[in-house]
Amino acid sequence: MLKNARIVPYIPVADVGRARKFYEEKVGLKPKEEYAGGVIYECGNGSRVFMYPSPGAGTSRASTAFWQVDDVVAEVAELKAKGVVFEEYDMPGIKMEDSIASGGGAKTAWFKDSEGNILAVSQRIS
Predict the structure, then answer these.
(1) Residue 55 to residues 3, 12, 34, 66, 111: CA-CA distances in angstroms?
(2) Contact of 84 with 27, CB cutoff 8 Å
(3) C-alpha angle 97-99-100 in degrees, rounded to nearest 5
(4) Three-state DSSP state, 41
(5) I need a surface site. Which of 17, 103, 113, 124 has the fewest CB within 10 A?
């Protein structure tokens, strides 16, 4: 059953070369395997993400994926130092400070990749 299967998020990109540069140089991902014109990246704890060519890249107005991190402030600072630009949202019940939203039991910061996909880093808080 699917409840026991590992899930792999897909990230559509219009330009694989441009996207690889973003994910590898700015986000720090290391390619594990080239597959079907795209790239599989391995992330923490054996999780993976598949970046693939698609004409639908960047068309979703919702988050594509997020990385669960232990220190969102440090991650945001590191990504900003590499040139990643974070989104600023105005949402009811959410407080934004230095590109990080606090509320709902988490601190989250969103950014767009080179293709316009919305991604995030998020830290659960108690």
Answers:
(1) 30, 8, 19, 22, 20
(2) yes
(3) 65
(4) strand
(5) 17
Q: Is 20 in contact with 27 (CB distance < 8 Å)? A: no
Could you give the residue ranges of the DSSP H alpha helices within 58-112? 72-81
The answer to whether 101 touches 109, Cβ cutoff 8 Å, is yes
Q: Domain map of the chain by residue range?
A: 2-124
Average pLDDT for residues 47-55, to the nearest whole number?
96
Q: pLDDT above 90 covers what percent of the chain? A: 83
Residues 52-105: tens digit of each pLDDT: 999 999 999 999 999 999 999 999 999 999 999 999 988 887 889 999 999 889
Quick one: CATH architecture of 2-124? Roll (3.10)
Average pLDDT, the chain: 94
Hey, which bits of the chain come out as E strands? Answer: 10-13, 31-35, 38-42, 48-53, 63-68, 95-97, 100-103, 106-112, 118-124
Q: 12 — alpha (psi -120 to 50), left (phi > 0) or beta? A: beta
